[in-house]
Specification:
Largest sheet: 5 strands, mixed
Helix content: 25-40%
Number of helices: 5
Shape: globular
Number of strands: 5
């Protein structure tokens, strides 16, 4: 989670919402990404999406069934869909997102009967630090 938090700090420094994501395979980091929708003019450039794309390119395959995803914020519905399609084995996330989250909030994506893959989910890892990054970022903009 440390690498994901560092990526989230990088996102904040670039004026992006501070979210970072890391894909791990067999204990080895294979992709690190920060949120970049504004920087890239791409609404799909969430940290999770970017990390999944990098990991798939690194491994040369679209299925990441033996990989773990570490992310600082509860994934949204778009990212949850990508996680399911990539067959990520486990997701670990820090801060919950009652407004935009789709794992334990909102649509509870992985609990839907139409969801074809359900990763193991571990919430609250690094929650305090991830939450502080987000609160600080938004407080500066108000």
């Amino acid at each position: 989670m440390r690498a994901a938090l560092d990526a989230a700090r990088d996102a904040a420094a670039a004026g992006e919402v501070p979210v970072g994501a890391v894909v791990v395979l067999d204990g080895r980091v294979i992709a690190i990404a920060a949120n970049a929708p504004r920087t890239l003019n791409d609404p799909t450039a969430h940290a999770e999406m970017r990390a999944i794309r990098m990991a798939a390119a690194t491994l040369g395959r679209d299925r990441l069934e033996d990989c773990d995803l570490w992310v600082t914020l509860e994934p949204c519905a778009m990212c949850a869909g990508a996680i399911a399609h990539a067959r990520i084995a486990r997701i670990y996330y820090g801060a919950s997102d009652p407004k935009g989250g789709a794992v334990e909030h909102g649509p509870r994506f992985f609990a839907q009967p139409t969801c074809h893959h359900r990763p193991e989910v571990f919430a609250g890892i690094g929650e305090r630090e991830a939450g502080e990054l987000l609160r600080s970022f938004f407080a500066e903009r108000r």
